[in-house]
Amino acid sequence: MLVTTSRKPSAKSRTLCKLLSRFTASRCISRGKMGMQELLDFTEGNTFIVVGEYHGNPGELSFHDNEGKLLFSIRFSDRYSEEIDSYWFPDVLPVLTGEGEIAEALESFFHFERVESDRVSQLPQNSLVMAIGDKEIDFIGSGKSLFKFNIKGFKKY
Fold first, then answer.
1. Do residues 140 and 146 make contact, with C-beta atoms less than 8 angstroms apart?
2. pLDDT beyond 90 at 33
C-alpha cells in the first residue's frame, strides 16, 4: 500500500502522510506533479491513500483500489499528541477496533486484524491500535493516543 499527498502539499500534509505510512507500515511519497496514471504505475498494482487539503491543512483521505477507483473518503480535522515527535513506531501491523460503517470500510481496505474493544487492553505493550468511532479515529501506540481525526464526513463511492 502507498500513502501519498495531493499535488502541492503543505508541510502539515507531508507530515501526516509520513505518520500514516509509518503507522500502517506502508510506503509514503510526496506526489508532486505526478498525474493519476503515473501514480497508478508507481503503486505497482497496490491500493493507495491520497491525503487531501482544505485551506492548507490536511482535511481528507481518499482511499483508492489498485486500479485507481475511489472507494471511499473521510473528511476530518486532526490533532496530534505532544509525544508524537519522539514516538518510535514498532514494526508491527496495527489492529482495528470499533463498529459501524467507517470501521467496516477501513477493515476492508487495510485487512488488519479486528479486535473487540474490551480486548485492546490485553494486547502487547508495543501494539498499534486504530480505534474507530462514528465521530473520530484514534491512532494509539503503546497505550497512548498519538494522533486523532475528528470525522466531519464519510462518503462511499
1. yes
2. no
- Nearest 10 degrees: Cα torsion 134, 135, 137, 140: -100
What predicted TM-score, i.e. pTM, was given to this entire model?
A: 0.92
Query: For 90, which DSSP code?
Result: P
Burial 139-153 (b: 16+ CB within 10 A, else e): bbbbeebbbbbebee
The Cα 107–Cα 96 span in angstroms is 7
Nearby residues of 94 by Cβ (< 8 Å), 6 or more positions away: 23, 24, 25, 110, 112, 127, 128, 129, 130, 139
Residues 6+ apart with CB under 8 A from 16: 51, 58, 78
